[in-house]
Amino acid sequence: MRKEDIIMCRCEDVSLKQIHDLLEQGYTTFEDLKRLLRVGMGPCQANTCGHLIQRELAKHLGQSVEVTPVHKVRPLVLGVPLKKIAEDQDDER
Amino acid sequence: MNVNCLIIGAGISGASIAYNLAKKGMKDIHVIDKSYFTSGATGRCGAGVRQQWATEMNCILAKKSIEFFEHAKEILEYPGNLEFKQEGYLILATSKDEHDQFTKNVALQNRLGIPSKQLTKEEALKIVPHLNPDSFYSATFCQTDGHLNPFKMTEAYMLAAKRLGVTFSFFEEAKEIIVEDKAIKRVVTNKNVYDTSIVVNAAGGYSYEIGQMAGVDIPVYAENHEILATEPVERMQGPMVMSFSKNIYCQQVPHGAFLMGRSNPHVEKNHDVESTWSFLDHMSKTLVDLMPKVAELRVVRQWGGSYNMSPDRQPIIGGTDQCQGFYMACGFSGHGFMLAPMTGLLLSEIILKEPSSMDMTSLHIDRFKDQTIAHTEKSVV
Questions:
Q1: Smaller CB count within 10 Å for chain B: N or C?
Q2: What total number of domains does chain B contain?
Q3: Is the distance from CB of B294 to CB of B228 less than 8 angstroms?
Q4: Can you give the CATH number for the domain in which B129 is found?
């Protein structure tokens, strides 16, 4: 399968080729890729692409995944409408 | 290792200074950064570029910077998309007092050639229909203000600088600056030792610490300013909406997400860049009041970044007689991104001892020797 057809980040539609191209340019962290490709900035906040990209980074850097940092996890865990925060609404059912 | 110039900080300021020095012919310029690409203030900022300021100096710096941004893609030969859009900043006045202050601001801006204007509530609502008409008094608007992608803009400067021979090193942290006879001799990092006579402090939130390494007391400090991003939606807002009295800036970026930030009047002076619940709480309430329709969007992420605050909320750009060869571009007080083209141009002129494009007295660190500060910028969120 062609690298441009393999989607790594489904929220922002980023392919394996785009990831590899930036790694070739010398970027070495998830944070670099996030800033230039928007991986991890979509609704799932890297829940899908995080470990996939971590694996590619580890492979490229010739190191194990254990020592390859993933993205910085940021609040919120789920998308919450601002209005509900303002109203302090209890959304649990 | 010998270098002609070591720049500390690879954010937008460091990258712009490196590019301008290299373009003027300086060789052997090296830029170090303690973390990853745009890890500091640049990569955490609100991506806005505006010219509507209350001090003459900020107006001039901002206007000339916008003029550069208008042609940045071509000048820097950047293959990517800088996402520059000029759909304006709409700044809301929420009282008669603020309205009167803005009348003065617009007069100053117009005198300096900035095409801002004061709008009635009705005129403002035509530009941003989802504003709550009861939440503000009047507004000012400048069409040529707007949005620019901070990551892409920094990369554009960095790639252009690299083509001119500048080298960059990330995850490299300055540990010690050796000064002999009040002149820069050497910089020790966690990876290298650089023999150099010129050091540029473009360290953003860490500018004070870098100053201390060289024995230069810089009256700046870092404080956390928080921001959030919503889910992307169809285009519904052209300009950045801003209010100093309501303590908010909020824009829809070309990608579709809304970015919005506010300051915390009780924030401590330190390097914290974490997120707080109270920011989210205050922001959501401000938004429900100001733009209830935008408040229906989901927050996908919040984060923080350091403002490097100076006493008059204007930058410090230049050298110092406290240490020969030590140059500063710091104290931007939250606006280093939008002023970067002028930062790079002006500091490169000073370092290369060329005639300056403008009078630099009011940007020199020595202005703080005087106990009374002449002009403090109040148009800051």
A1: N
A2: 2
A3: no
A4: 3.30.9.10
Is residue A32 within 8 Å of residue A42, measured between CB atoms? Answer: no
User: For B93-134, how does the pLDDT look when each residue is reduced to its tens digit (9 = 90+)?
Assistant: 999 999 999 999 999 999 999 999 999 999 999 999 999 999
B108 within 8 A of B133, measured Cβ to Cβ: no
B 167-226 → A contacts, CB under 8 A: 170
Burial (CB < 10 A; 0-12, 13-18, 19+), residue A5, is exposed
In a domain, B254, yes or no: yes
Domain boundaries, chain A: 3-87
Cβ atoms within 10 Å of B83's Cβ, excluding its own: 17
Domain identity same for B193 and B283: no
Q: So what's the ipTM on this one? A: 0.84
Indicate the pLDDT class of residue B370, thresholds 50, 70 and 90: confident
Question: Which residue of chain B has the CA closest to A34?
Answer: B151
- Could you tell me if B95 and B231 lie in one domain? yes
| B62-85 residue pLDDT tens | 999 999 999 999 999 999 999 999
Task: Look at A86 and B287 and tell me if their CB atoms are within 8 Å.
Answer: yes
Distance of CA B336 to the CA centre of its chain: 2
Q: Which residue in B has a C-alpha nearest to residue A35's C-alpha?
A: B151
What is the pTM (predicted TM-score) of this model? 0.94
Is residue B259 within 8 A of residue B227, CB to CB? The reply is: yes
CATH number at residue B187: 3.50.50.60
Give the mutation candidate from A25, A28, A71, A82 for the B interface (greatest B CB count, under 10 A): A82
Residue of chain B nearest A81, judged by CA positions = B298
User: Phi first, then psi: what are they for B251, rounded to 5°?
Assistant: -135, 155
Same domain, B262 and B131: yes
Chains A, B: CB pairs < 8 Å: 80
Number of neighbouring beta carbons within 10 Å of residue B3: 20
Q: What is the domain class of A3-87 according to CATH? A: mainly alpha
The parent domain of residue B211 ranges over 5-46+151-220+312-368
